Structures are given as C-alpha cells and as structure tokens.
Q: What sequence folds into this?
C-alpha cells in the first residue's frame, strides 16, 4: 500500500501509526521523503515492506529509479486536505 503525505513530518507520523497498527499482523511500514540520501530508504525497500508512506517527490524519484513497484493498489493521500496541499502535477504523475 502506498500512502502519500505532503511533508516529511506527516509522512513520519503516518508511518509510525501504520507500523504500530500493522506490526501485530506481521506487516512492515516505512516513510520515504526527500532531503536525505536514498541509500537507507532504498535498502529498506529492497528488504520488503507492506506499507510505504511518502512524499510525492521522493515517491516519483524512487519510481523512476525502479525502487518502488506499484501493484494493483492505487496511491492513497493521507487525508482529503492533503490532496489539495500536495503537488498537483506530481500527483497527476502518480495517479493516472
């Protein structure tokens, strides 16, 4: 599952909650965002995660680098207001 968040702070908050809720079921979550090196985020993705919470820019970067593969589930903004706040052009890239 891919959840979009407009800021790194919100991505981290949503990821922490997702991790707490999903861990008992044996699922993993990660937050990805720009402004930090790709290495750790890419490594965590190669290990496999079930829930990715990220900012649109970094998600697009990792899609371009083929580090994220979207399955049948579409990206989900973390709230209705985030859709308006997020980068409209970047969202159009992610959601056909």
A:
């Amino acid at each position: 599952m891919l959840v979009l968040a407009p800021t790194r702070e919100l991505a981290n908050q949503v990821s922490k909650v997702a991790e707490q809720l999903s861990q008992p079921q044996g699922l993993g979550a990660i937050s990805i965002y720009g402004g930090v090196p790709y290495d750790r985020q890419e490594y965590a993705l190669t290990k496999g995660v079930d829930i990715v919470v990220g900012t649109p820019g970094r998600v697009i970067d990792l899609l371009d680098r083929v580090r994220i593969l979207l399955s049948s589930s579409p990206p989900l903004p973390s709230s209705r207001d985030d859709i308006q706040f997020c980068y409209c052009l970047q969202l159009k890239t992610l959601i056909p």
Q: What stands out?
A: Residues 8-22 form the longest helix (15 residues). The CA atoms of residues 5 and 35 lie 15 Å apart. The domain at 2-94 is CATH 3.40.50.300 (Rossmann fold). The chain has one domain: 2-94.
